Amino acid sequence: MNKVVFITGATSGFGRATARRFAEDGWSLVLSGRRLERLEELQQELQAQVPVHIAQLDVRDAAAVQRMVAELPEGFRQVRALINNAGLALAPEPAQKVALQDWHTMIDTNITGLVNVTHAVLPALLETGKGASIVNIGSVAGEWPYPGGHVYGASKAFVKQFSFNLRCDLIATGVRVTDIAPGMAETEFTLVRTKGNQAASDALYGSTTPLTAEDIAEQIFYVASLPDHININRLEIMPSRQAWSPFAVDRD
Ligand SMILES: NC(=O)c1ccc[n+]([C@@H]2O[C@H](COP(=O)([O-])OP(=O)(O)OC[C@H]3O[C@@H](n4cnc5c(N)ncnc54)[C@H](OP(=O)(O)O)[C@@H]3O)[C@@H](O)[C@H]2O)c1
């Protein structure tokens, strides 16, 4: 059977590693993201292995998402796994110092974008039925508060609850839903969050052992390739060298 995986945010980090992982297992790939050259490079790399369809896409644009899904070529329409991975954090500073636009960008990408793609791809997943999967990339920030988490953490809490609620509605359709919640992983995430501050990114990931994009890709592949009677609801994954902090107390 031709298995098709549809990945958002395939130009970097988890999304790109996930494309490579599914290609290893022979899945056909639908890869999207805003940076076309990155998509073309990945297509070039993987097309000798498996069929690859690329589409430049901003998930915030609902009409563009619908158009892209409607225009999927023959052979890529029967989607078996949707990996809702596109997302970002901005503004690590405290809430009271953040520009409103940064909050809007996170909401538009992590919530509206994920909902846009889910709505557009759902009919194909329903047609696939048994064994189909939606894997939503949440975050530990959706469960655990931390300073500077403000809208990012709240957007990932949405991803978790949306995933659980989808499960309720899709129970009889065969379509599974999982919220994967990674902790610290070294990708371009911190470069994006700090608007290009390489030193901040290096400092965060230095002198410890963060997760890699490949670690998360392996988990995504795992949940989407389990026998069809198993649904992993939520998978929270941290590096062994990351844990929680004590409660903060303001003192005189
Ligand atoms: N790294 C971590 O520590 C960590 C931990 C927990 C959760 N996460 C989540 O994991 C997911 C992937 O992040 P990553 O760590 O792999 O970061 P990354 O390397 O920065 O990759 C983010 C991906 O999202 C895409 N993207 C961003 N905005 C988009 C938009 N408007 N439309 C389409 N694609 C968009 C980017 O592609 P373009 O820029 O080309 O569009 C890129 O491919 C995100 O949802 C993130 O919140 C990351």
Provide structural commentary:
Residues 3-187 form the Ketoreductase domain. Belongs to the short-chain dehydrogenases/reductases (SDR) family. It comes from Pseudomonas cuatrocienegasensis. Keywords: Oxidoreductase. This is Sulfoacetaldehyde reductase. With 252 residues, the protein is an alpha/beta fold. The protein contains 8 helices and 9 strands. The model has no long low-confidence stretch (mean pLDDT 98). The relative contact order is 0.14. It has one domain (4-184, 213-237): 3-Layer(aba) Sandwich (Rossmann fold). The protein starts with a strand and ends in a 15-residue tail after the last strand. The longest helix has 29 residues, at 100-128. Strands 3-2-1-4-5-6-9 form a 7-stranded parallel sheet, with helices on both faces. A two-stranded parallel sheet has the order 7-8. Strand 1 (4-8), helix 1 (13-24) and strand 2 (28-33) form a beta-alpha-beta unit. Helix 3 (62-70) packs parallel to helix 4 and helix 4 packs parallel to helix 5 (150-170). NADP nicotinamide-adenine-dinucleotide phosphate is lined by residues 8-9, 11-15, 33-35, 38, 57-60, 85-89, 109, 113, 137, 139, 182, 184-185, 187-189, 192.
Question: What keyword list fits this structure?
Answer:
binds NADP nicotinamide-adenine-dinucleotide phosphate, two-stranded parallel ribbon, Rossmann fold, KR_dom, 42% helix
